Amino acid sequence: MNRRRLLQIGSLGVGSIAITSKLFSSAKKITIGKKPLVVSTWGVGINANKAAWEILRKNGRALDAVEAGVMITEAEQDNCCVGLSAYPDRDGHVTLDASIMDEQGNAGSVAFLERIKHPISVARLVMEKTPHVMLVGSGAQQFAVEQGFALEDDKLSDSAKKAYEDWLKTSQYKPVMNIENSKGQNAFAPHRFANGAFNHDTIGMISLDAQGNLSGSCTTSGLAFKMRGRVGDSPIIGAGLFVDNEVGAAVSTGLGEEVMRVCGSHMVIEAMRHGASPEDACKLTVEKILRRKPSIKTDDIQVGFIAIDKNGNFGGYSIQKGFNYAVCYADDYNTLIDAKHLL
Ligand code: ASP
User: Fold this and answer.
1) In the annotation, is 95 catalytic?
2) How far apart, in Å, are the Cα atoms of 279 and each of 10, 306, 334?
3) Using one digit for the tens of pLDDT, what is the confidence trace for 239-255?
4) What single string gives the DSSP state of each residue in 92-121?
5) pTM of the model
6) Positions in the chain whose pLDDT score sits under 50
7) Which residues are CB-contacts of 143 (< 8 A; sequence separation ≥ 6)?
8) Which ligand 1 atom minimizes the distance to the CA of 255?
């Protein structure tokens, strides 16, 4: 409502209160959410949120919270999908992707990074100490070592070794298109395990701090048994992660190739900028992915987004059933929420 319109309403007088309130009630509903707030993907988000909350509850910065939060997941043992214990690429090496963004729109990311325990912290230093946004492969590793990060052994965790050996029994070393298929029908298709879990995931975390500033992070080993050199959406700013302090923050998980093709997280933010709620913005972005590629229905591809807005409202949406996210905004509130889904 512009100033002129407000002046017109102001000049209507007492008798027009009903008209005025009707005008306001038809205006965009402003809902006030939670602050500080941290939201992260999947069940691992509960533990990650706890570390982030320790910072947020003391009026700390969202950027520090989203780094500390996902570091918990990066350090976990027996995690198929994040950090050095994760499943390797098809040549048997764990390669990691991560990105981070702050409230000023600064961004840092690393991709195809090997033998470094905390890619998210390297991404933060790329943002803070270099003129660049992204470092990859041996260059990212060299930078990490220069910054004092230890070079860990190139050794698979017990669970990753077992999963890799199982996969090798049927692997075909040739690139196959349209690879995501829950039935595991081709060379490096991620598949669902008996417990229902996919063998790829990302911890993505977005936060609004007490000062009203937004930040986000994400970190992953990408798709298990991927082609060597494959990089997913997570380190690509605008695909796996996007933060605009005027609007909100969004992060994705799922088949990164589909997220990259629509600049998914950026699309979520732009939808919120034009008035969509976080949940609706996530929904219309997964709808866009599905519209572009209807065969996703039969290929069983999963993509999910979570988002928060500047007012501390939050939401998530996925293509398939089974995506959830952890929400924390009080000492006694850190809860896993099932995302709504399209199919
Ligand atoms: N988005 C990640 C990637 O494609 C994987 C995942 O979240 O499941 O690398």
Assistant:
1) no
2) 35, 8, 19
3) 999 999 999 999 999 99
4) S---EEEEEE-TTS-EEEEEEE-S-S-HHH
5) 0.86
6) 1-27, 173-198
7) 122, 125, 126, 130, 135
8) 4
Say whether domain 35-341 belongs to CATH 3.60.20.30: yes
For ligand 1, is residue 201 a contact (CB within 6 Å)?
yes
| Residues 302 and 255: beta-carbon distance below 8 Å | yes
d(CA 245, CA 263): 18
> In the prediction, which pLDDT does 78 show?
80
CA atoms of 282 and 177, how far apart (whole Å): 27
* Alpha carbon distances (Å) from 66 to 94, 117, 222, 340: 23, 16, 19, 24
Strand pairing class (314-318; 37-41): unpaired
Evaluate: CB of 202 within 6 angstroms of ligand 1: yes
The reply to whether ligand 1 has any atom less than 6 angstroms from the CB of 248 is no
Helix, strand, or coil (residue 285): helix
pLDDT, tens digit (0-9, with 9 covering 90-100), for 145-197: 999 999 999 999 999 999 899 889 887 544 333 233 333 333 233 444 444 44
